[in-house]
Amino acid sequence: MKERLRFFPITAYAIVMGMSGLTIVFSKYYHLQWMPKFVFDGMLFFTFGLFLLVSFLYGLKAVKHFDQVVVDFRHRIRINFFSAISISLLLLSIAFLGYWPFVSLVLWWMGVALHTVLMLHTIAFWVQHNFEIHFMNPAWFIPVVGNILVPVAGVDFLPNGFSFVYFAVGIFFWVVLFVIFLNRVIFHDQLPQKFLPTLFILIAPPAVGFIAYMRITQSWDVVSVLLLYLSFFFVAFLVFLRKSFYKVKFFISWWALTFPLAAVTLAAAVAFQVTAQAIYKVASLSMFTLLVLAIGFVSWKTILKIRAQEICVNED
Predict the structure, then answer these.
(1) Is residue 258 part of a domain?
(2) Could you tell me if 14 and 84 are in contact, meaning their C-beta atoms sit under 8 angstroms apart?
(3) What is the C-alpha to C-alpha distance for residues 206 and 209, in angstroms, rounded to an integer?
């Protein structure tokens, strides 16, 4: 048990991100009267409890195996997943926004403060170290493109200018990192199997960007439509890549596909709310079905891996 705690993965926060995304979708569906309130209520507190559990376990690891936490924090790939902690806080803030605004405010400030520090540290880490191109994978989007989440709840707490700073930084780094990533996958070695599920992260920036842009500007315009349709494009692109995933062994990284699917599901629901065009409702419900199936699949696989004691192991 002690050895398993030593290797408790920071990537476990991807599970919290996925379940938080599903919770926010339930919240939107409840407000659109597509789902009863008790489903959202139950999911909200289950996800919050899951966040506390993962945080407790990783905190216990930090107390008993601080040297391993340092190893994670200096790792060229795992360092990017530390921002999943602050993103989980921001997602929970969004989930609590309409249910308990004070809790949402506290979680939002905690998330913004932590994410700002982790983002700047991670960028500095990138600049101060020499990276081979094969180290690049979609997990790099998490620390910097995660800024786009700040405005979603932030517009209710501070003037829009504050939220727009984070939105601008997130969009800028999304474009920069996407160009680097495209160069990596086209002109260099293929992604290792372990990181293939992280391709779904490509859906999240335009989907969340659309939601954040709508929250800041309240405007259905060329920018919002561009971001929304780009998120749909990446969904279609990954459908065409589906055969690449068939024989991939299950890793905890499979949870990386859940939050992006939740983001595009929510984006389509917001588009329907704004335009009342039925096509967006169909798109949202279709993506919701896929999201539920995906979460059911990765949850089942995760439970099997836990029972087989194949999760908390040395990944190096």
Answers:
(1) yes
(2) yes
(3) 5
Range of the domain at 301: 2-307
Of residues 238, 206, 235, 204, the one with CA closest to residue 223: 206
Token pair, residue 62, equals: 């930090």
User: Given this model, what pLDDT does residue 131 score?
Assistant: 81
For the entire predicted model, the pTM comes to 0.93
- CATH label of the domain that carries residue 58: 1.50.10.150
Rounded CA-CA distance 307/53 in Å is: 18
Q: Where are the alpha helices (DSSP H) in the chain?
A: 2-6, 13-31, 37-64, 66-74, 83-96, 101-128, 141-145, 150-154, 160-187, 204-217, 222-240, 258-275, 278-307
CA nearest neighbour of 44 among 133, 129, 107: 107
Quick one: which of 143, 142, 137, 140 has its CA closest to 184? 137
d(CA 189, CA 160) in angstroms, rounded, equals: 42
Does residue 316 lie within any of the structural domains? no
Q: Which residue has the tokens 């790099």?
A: 140
pLDDT digits (tens, 9 = 90+) for 229-238: 999 999 999 9
Does residue 312 lie within any of the structural domains? Answer: no
- Quote the tokens at residue 135: 């180290």
In a domain, residue 315? The reply is no
